[in-house]
Backbone:
């Protein structure tokens, strides 16, 4: 699990956008799944995105779809039938603490519930990489710590996790950290070395 | 990973959630397009029905005119009724010598008199008013009649005649129907352009109002074709329904107007009446289908173009 830290405007979100192919770099190299991202064609992007889970600060839940349907959306888009993914989605919702809220619409959820629903949607397809941009930005500290524990658990289960945050207090001691300022990497801390 | 997680946490749930459409119905953006499409479909159907009906009437007129001609024996040479009728018989015999002529009918003097009724009224015609004798000539189908040659033959026989082969009328009807057809194609072209413009506008409005959904679909790796299919299918269904309502409205109004203004023989005064044929029914059915096809193609292309320029890097 890697944290990208830095003040607002340092370039954390931009770096993440470059990784999850929302933007293209004008120079330099980013290697994603063994490929230089500048060489990836537009038509290949959807398939690569399906190998990544993305969690953003504004949750990006669809208001007219229930929590269940929001979380199941990537599977539905991939053409899976509801009966095939129903148990997986419900199981995941229970795991993130939304087992009894599967039928709720996003506008009725709290900030923490929305963020957990967004995380569940990001991991429902078992992505190789989980990218989160300020995932604790809209929740209180207690919920922030619970979310970070959730990410740690996902990482422990085998998902590469990259999290951008300006809240360094939430970073576990054993995590890898990359600090950025004005678009430049200013330091790295290897969690395992510290731990 | 998720399966492992799920296995440890799944309990039987009374799950009855019904799948909602990914793209919600948005009355604010959908309704104006729907109304515009109803109006366009109505106009397109009316244009098609009017063109079809006009074409049919013109063909009817032309088929009545073709293969027939009228020979008028001028009254100046009249000496007596008997002599005049003899001249008519001679003219009939002369005409029958020409190959294209199938049969000749000498129309009775009452017929010539009836032609004057609109001007003189239904009164006895004085004997001193010279009336021509008319010969109705029917030609074999597809045979050409050489008017000049026949005129020369009549001149040689000392009979002064006028021959009306209706070619002027035929040409005029042909020209008028061609012009009407051209105008209706122009109107249809404009309606199609308006439908395309409305579809582009509605697709753009739909994309703007559903921008968050588009971003989420892009974020979770939905291919542009999937997103385009969501929007274009929605618009095509809407276009089909609107086209159906517009086309049916036009059909009903055509039938009502046709029956209200029909005088006799299917004619509305001097205009052809609006009669429905199988072609008309086919046109009415085709309008919503064509409209849906236009919309699906246009909205698909618009969505793909916008996705690639605004969402995909």
Residues:
């Amino acid at each position: 699990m890697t944290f990208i830290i830095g003040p607002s405007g340092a370039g954390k979100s931009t770096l993440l956008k470059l990784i999850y192919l929302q933007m293209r770099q004008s120079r330099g190299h980013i290697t994603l799944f063994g490929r230089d991202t500048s060489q990836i064609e537009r038509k290949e992007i959807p398939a690569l995105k399906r190998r990544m889970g993305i969690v953003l600060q504004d949750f990006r839940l669809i208001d007219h779809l229930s929590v269940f349907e929001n979380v199941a959306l990537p599977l539905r888009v991939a053409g899976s039938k509801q009966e095939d993914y129903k148990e997986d989605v419900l199981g995941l919702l229970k795991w993130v603490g939304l087992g009894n809220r599967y039928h709720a619409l996003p506008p009725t959820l709290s900030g923490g519930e929305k963020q957990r629903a967004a995380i569940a949607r990001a991991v429902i397809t078992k992505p190789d990489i989980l990218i989160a941009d300020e995932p604790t930005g809209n929740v209180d500290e207690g919920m922030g710590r619970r979310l970070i524990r959730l990410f740690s658990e996902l990482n422990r289960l085998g998902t590469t996790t990259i999290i951008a945050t300006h809240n360094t207090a939430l970073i576990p001691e054993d995590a890898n950290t990359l600090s950025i300022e004005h678009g430049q990497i200013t330091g790295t801390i290897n969690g395992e070395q510290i731990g | 990973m998720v399966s492992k997680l799920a296995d440890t946490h799944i309990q039987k749930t009374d799950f009855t959630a019904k799948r909602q459409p990914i793209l919600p119905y948005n009355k604010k953006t959908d309704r104006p397009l729907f109304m515009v499409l109803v109006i366009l479909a109505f106009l397109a159907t009316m244009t098609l029905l009017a063109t079809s009906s006009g074409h049919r009437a013109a063909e009817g007129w032309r088929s009545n005119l073709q293969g027939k001609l009228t020979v008028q024996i001028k009254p100046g040479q009249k000496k007596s009724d008997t002599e005049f009728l003899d001249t008519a018989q001679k003219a009939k015999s002369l005409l029958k010598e020409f190959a294209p002529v199938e049969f000749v009918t000498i129309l009775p003097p009452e017929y010539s008199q009836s032609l004057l009724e609109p001007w003189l009224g239904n009164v006895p015609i004085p004997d001193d008013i010279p009336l021509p004798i008319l010969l109705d000539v029917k030609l074999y189908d597809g045979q050409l009649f050489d008017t000049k040659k026949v005129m020369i033959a009549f001149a040689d026989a000392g009979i002064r005649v006028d021959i009306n082969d209706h070619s002027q009328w035929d040409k005029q009807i042909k020209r008028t129907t061609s012009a009407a057809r051209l105008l209706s194609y122009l109107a249809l072209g404009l309606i199609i352009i308006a439908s395309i413009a409305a579809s582009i506008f509605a697709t753009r409005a739909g994309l703007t109002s559903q921008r968050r959904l588009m971003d989420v679909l892009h974020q979770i790796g939905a291919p542009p074709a999937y997103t385009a299919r969501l929007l274009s299918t929605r618009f095509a269904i809407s276009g089909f329904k609107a086209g159906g309502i517009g086309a049916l409205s036009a059909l009903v109004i055509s039938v009502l107007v046709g029956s209200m203004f029909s005088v006799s023989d299917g004619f509305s005064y001097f205009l052809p009446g609006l009669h429905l044929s199988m072609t008309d029914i086919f046109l009415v059915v085709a309008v919503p289908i064509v409209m849906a096809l236009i919309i699906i193609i246009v909205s698909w292309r618009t969505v793909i173009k916008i996705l690639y320029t605004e969402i995909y890097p």
The radius of gyration of chain B is 34 Å. Residues 96 and 103 of chain B are 7 Å apart (CA to CA).
